[in-house]
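Posting this for the archive.
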Amino acid sequence: MDETNGETAIRVLVADDEAMMRAGIRAILTSVPGFEVVGEAADGREAVALVAELAPDVALIDVQMPGTDGLAATETITAEHPGTAVVVLTTFSEDTYIARALSGGAAGFVLKSGDPHQLVAGLRAVVAGGAYLSPEVARRVSHELDGGRLTRAAAAREKVETLSGRERDVLALLGEGCSNDQVARRLHIAPGTAKVHVRSILTRLDLENRVQAAVLAYEAGLAHRY
């Protein structure tokens, strides 16, 4: 992050093959204090190269781009440049890509047609170490991961019941996109204790990452924000 007017600016790379979409996102982010768009890419290959060159805090990446698509770019960035978080831009017609983006290490998902406030909130959440899914995407992810069966919610609630009360509190905050430090502040516990709880939740529930934890919190009815 860079210092801008005494504040820490979140450095963002925007990757989308549509110039108008890139311009729109740039306009949104430059109108919000604390953000700096450090680069733009028109395809996944260019996005990966710019991440290596610029080391942004977060890369906002479209799913469908010519050549190297956003999914392949996400996998490469998260594997080779772990200091850059990835937020995936998606549309309702791209539900089938969500599971791969999730397994590829994406820390957030926002809709292209969504509220700009969700975009800003998502970028802030993942840079802080949390995970973020816009409300619409959270519902879509839930269906994508289990075929949309009605039993998904019941299964999620059953899994959550295996956690302690404190762990359920932590899981609910993960569902809101909170980082470990934010969890600690909200629950008035030490950051190290919050980290231990998060690790325990992921292990006990056989979850790969915080995004899956956020999805589970949504499915179990814990994440009220979604």
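The chain has a mean pLDDT of 85. The chain is about 50% helix and 15% strand.
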